[in-house]
Design a protein that fits this description.
- This protein is an all-beta fold.
- The chain is about 0% helix and about 60% strand.
- It has a four-stranded antiparallel sheet with strand order 3-2-5-6, with no helix packed on it.
- A hairpin with a 3-residue loop joins strand 5 and strand 6.
- The radius of gyration is 12 Å and the shape is elongated.
- The mean pLDDT is about 95.
């Protein structure tokens, strides 16, 4: 589960990248109201294949900000 908060209502996109910077999955995008939100990543890539355990990064882009966080995926 990836949790994030938005200060103002805005469009956003949430993407997962591997340690080499390659995009693994485009998880979600669209419009959300201000507040705390949870998005579930099921550990699969855009081709619907399971990814390996390891370190991944997720990038949250909104109208005016971009945040990148590290996460550890274990299965």
């Amino acid at each position: 589960v990836i949790q994030f908060s938005l200060d103002t209502p805005s469009t956003y996109s949430l993407d997962v990248f591997d340690i080499l910077g390659r995009q693994v999955k485009s998880i979600d995008s669209g419009f959300k109201q201000a507040g705390v939100h949870n998005v579930i990543w099921d550990g699969r890539n855009d081709s619907n294949n399971d990814v390996a355990s390891g370190v991944y990064f997720y990038r949250l882009k909104t109208d005016d900000k971009t945040a990148i966080k590290r996460m550890l995926y274990l299965r």
